[in-house]
Write a structure and sequence with these properties.
By secondary structure, the protein is mainly alpha-helical. It contains seven helices and no strands. InterPro entries: HPP, TM_HPP.
Length: 171
């Protein structure tokens, strides 16, 4: 017989947490993720942080059970949105309609690939408002930074929070 929470689709927590404990976990996870990613960037002498990673950290550490916080969405969402932002920048330059087109196209592609990660929707704006980016932007900071966040979230959410992460039953 299934667990009653499985029948209703609700998430069962292995440990009941107070709002204060949840907030502490969010604070520690987010602060740790951004500081370690930033330090790693200094060690390898490459930028690994962009503003949307702060919002990604909110999902990873305050709402890790959300479909938007799962590794597939985190990694592919940022890669897709950044690729779209770079393509529009290279093909059409920078302007209001280009930013609108890039954000809209990034959203549509994330939806079509089932990799929606809301913070990634800001990636095309980061590219365009920053005056454009080179092709290496996909590697540094996007891919390297996202993989750093992912590794930290894997360790933190699984070991520190003591809960299974990523969620494999989210479609």
């Amino acid at each position: 017989m299934k667990n009653p929470s499985e029948a209703t689709g609700r998430i069962t927590r292995s440990v009941s947490r107070t709002p204060v404990l949840q907030a502490i976990c969010g604070f520690v996870g987010g602060a740790l993720a951004i500081s370690l990613t930033g330090l790693l960037g200094r060690l390898v002498d490459a930028p690994l942080l962009i503003a949307p990673f702060g919002a990604s950290s909110v999902l990873l550490f305050a709402a890790p059970d959300s479909a938007f916080a799962q590794p597939r969405n985190l990694v592919w969402g940022h890669l897709i949105a950044s690729t779209v932002g770079l393509a529009v920048f290279w093909l059409a330059g920078v302007g209001l309609w280009q930013m609108a087109l890039a954000v809209g196209a990034a959203i549509a592609l994330m939806q079509l690939t089932r990799t929606v990660h809301p913070p990634a929707g800001a990636d095309p704006l980061v590219i365009m408002l920053g005056g454009g980016a080179s092709g290496t932007f996909l590697l540094f900071p996007v891919l390297a930074g996202v993989l750093s966040l992912l590794l930290i979230a894997l360790v933190f959410n699984s070991l520190v929070r003591g809960e299974r992460w990523p969620r494999r039953d989210i479609s």
